Amino acid sequence: MELRHLYYFVAVAEELHFSRAAQRLHIAQPPLSQQIRSLEEELGVQLFERTKRRVELTDAGQVFLQQVRPTLRQIEEAVRSAQRANRGEIGRLVVGFNSSATYSVLPKILRVFRERRPDVELVLHELTTSQQLERFHHNQIDTGILYLPVEESSLNILSVLKEPLVIALAETHPLATQPQVSILSLINEPFILPPHHLGAGLYSQIISLFQQAGFTPKVAQEAILLQTAVSLVAGGIGVAIVPASVQNLQRTGVVYKSMQEQPPEVEIAVVWRRNDSSPVLQKFLHVVSEITDKSRT
User: Using CA atoms, how far apart are residues 248 and 34, in angstroms rounded to an integer?
Assistant: First the structure.
């Protein structure tokens, strides 16, 4: 039995006339009659009562029609779903992102992508750079937003943002009223730093800043997430060096200051596996490229 046999049967059952059914199917009547006879022989039942004047469904034909119609609807829906998936209109996309992205590029990317692909299931995981790379190795995420540099030949990299580092101070700090702050003026301050093992990007730039200033910071606390670091600053635990976009996090008790020295920049990129041709991923990357291009013009 082939799928076309079922479509032929339904057409005849609905028209109750072989000539009209043949016209509807855009085939000749004799082949249609032959296909219906073949179907009946294969099923071992008579589906139609045929006379010179009329065609009627048998009891077996009525039951068969009731079962075939929903089956064909399911097949047609499956075809439509496959076509939509091929166009990247439906599917599932797992996105890893670092905490800095939540204050910069991520909200706009998600908003535009959701507007264009509302039926795609987005699964979001806040992860450090090293955690994202680990999940790429185990095929647990489809794309990631993380700090550069990334030394992974299996990944494509699209830079989306470069931003300077700024100083986060408690609003009660003696330097909080200054328009700019020198990093050298913080030589005796306790600092809140990201852990080294979580990724070289942000940590390396912060340590480079201290090396250029000629001192080793006193580490009061390590904080994995930037919002945690800022909360600790508000609590008077110490000073933090954070990407400029974190200023979008309006935390009571914290002020942000640019540096008198030329601050280093951190770079955020979108990465994905080189061999991943997922239509949903390609649509997501198109949105990322479009937003990045607009932000640079």
Answer: 73
Looking only at Cα atoms, what is the longest distance across the chain?
Answer: 105
pLDDT at residue 256 above 70?
A: yes
Cβ neighbours of 1 (radius 10 Å)? 10
Name 157's Cβ contacts closer than 8 Å, sequence gap at least 6: 148, 150, 269, 270, 271
What is the rounded CA–CA span in Å between residue 30 and residue 290?
56
The structure tokens listed for 260 are: 């008198």
Tens digit of pLDDT for each residue in 24-54? 999 999 999 999 999 999 999 999 998 888 8
Q: What are phi and psi of 274, to 5 degrees?
A: -60, -35
Contacts 24+ apart (CB under 8 A), 86-91: 86/279, 87/279, 88/117, 88/120, 88/278, 88/279, 88/280, 88/281, 88/282, 88/283, 89/117, 89/119, 89/120, 90/119, 90/120, 90/280, 91/120, 91/121, 91/278, 91/279, 91/280
Burial of 147 (0-12, 13-18, 19+ CB in 10 A): buried
User: If DSSP codes are grouped into helix, strand and coil, which group holds residue 273?
Assistant: strand
Distance CA 18, CA 8 (A): 10
| Residue of 246, 218, 245 lying closest to 234 (CA atoms) | 246
pLDDT for the residue 85: 86
Burial class of 201 by CB neighbour count within 10 A (0 to 12, 13 to 18, 19+): buried
Q: Report the alpha-carbon distance of residue 242 to residue 247 in Å, rounded.
A: 9
Q: What amino acid occupies position 291? A: I
